[in-house]
Specification:
By secondary structure, the protein is an alpha/beta fold. It is 30% helix and 26% strand. The strands form five sheets. A five-stranded mixed beta barrel has the order 1-2-3-4-5. Helix 1 packs parallel to helix 4, helix 1 runs parallel beside helix 8 and helix 3 runs antiparallel to helix 4. The protein is globular.
Amino acid sequence: MSENYDVIVIGGGPAGYPAAIRAAQLGLKTVCIDAWLNKDQSPAFGGTCLNAGCIPSKALLESSELVHRAQHEFEKHGISTGEVAFDLAKMQARKTKISRDLTGGIKALFQANKVTGLFGFGKLLGDGKVEFKGHDGKTQELVGKHVIIATGSAPVNLKIAAFDNDKIVDSWGALDFTEVPKRLGVIGAGVIGTELGSVWARLGAKTVIIEALPTFLPMVDQAIAKETLKHLTKQGLDIRLGAKVAGAKVEGDAVVVEYEQGGEKKTETFDKLVVAVGRKPYTDGVNAKEIGVAFDERGFVKVDGHYKTNVSGVYAIGDVIGGAMLAHKAIEEGVALAEQIAGHHTQVNYNAIPSVIYTAPEVSWVGLSEEQAKAAGFEVKTGTGSFVSSGRAKAMEQAAGTVKVIADVKTDRILGVHMVGPFASELIAESVLALEYSATVEDLALTMHGHPTLAETFHDAILSVDGRAIHGINKPRK
């Protein structure tokens, strides 16, 4: 016998579970199906983000940063600790508990909002029908007026450096090491590669990051990217740009990586190799193509401006539709779609999506870089603020970094903000709001910021755009 729903969500990650919760809040009978199994075979909502990505990586980044600070910074505060030791098993246990607490929280939210949560697989059958197959093998037919594909993404597996889940691992595997590798290799110097490299480098691994592109963090304003590279290199990360991997193979207890850089063939040997070259849409087993859902050449589900696929009653959100593969973007799409299904008028502003790299110092940005703004035809003016001038940053012994503001000369509107520095992940929120409301440089120049705070550095950057900085040296104006 079929069970009828207004909304069936396939996927319980950052796109799916918010869509389910919001749909239920709006009075729609909703079910959310998720197939995730942890390595101990326990099911969990939250997808990659909560179980194997955003959350566990931030937990380890925080732990490793505290180790680094205790080893290199506490003495400056007059704090003596003796030789600093750490228990990796306890770090890993803490990381796991944080993830489990949060994924358990989703189950509680489902119950509070009357969402039916099912652990297992969802398979599209057409005409609003979905086959649910539980992890116990039992099947049930569900029928929904609206079916949402929110199955996320998976790490790209390179043929020349294929995962063996032991010596050559993906980002999830890199979060579960039981001991610190003496030598760690990372393929890919993007967000995931630099974060994971930072974790293990702080804990003592000699870490080499191999990046095929000649430019570090090309999506970030290059003044900020270059400063970030300087800070990470100073911390001991060996980042090799323009290095193209030819192959990787396991030889005994080591991984041998061959690559080419500057026309020269080179070889490095590691204890572990992390492959972090990006993610691809994941729709395995959903049966979407079989019922006629259209995909693009890269494997992303095609949708219109309201997340509708070409098949009536079938929608898609999150990583499976492309764009920024970020949890917060997926969350907003899930909420927006649920509200649209319920008849509300809402949309996601894709020009105001924050991005963050949780290294130390942190990197964050929103909107256009100076290079992107000029390429788009804007006449730009820029300003910078340095954390060196921040009393709060100095008191924290974290005065490294810069905030850069990019604005349109003609309209004074802020086009983008890129920064590297302490708590950049939190500081970027003001800039996101500025872009959301199309704020001008003058708007924020007239906005008072508390003293002493890290946010003052952003205000200094804003003032600097028009040569008005008080706590920094203004650039000569033409």
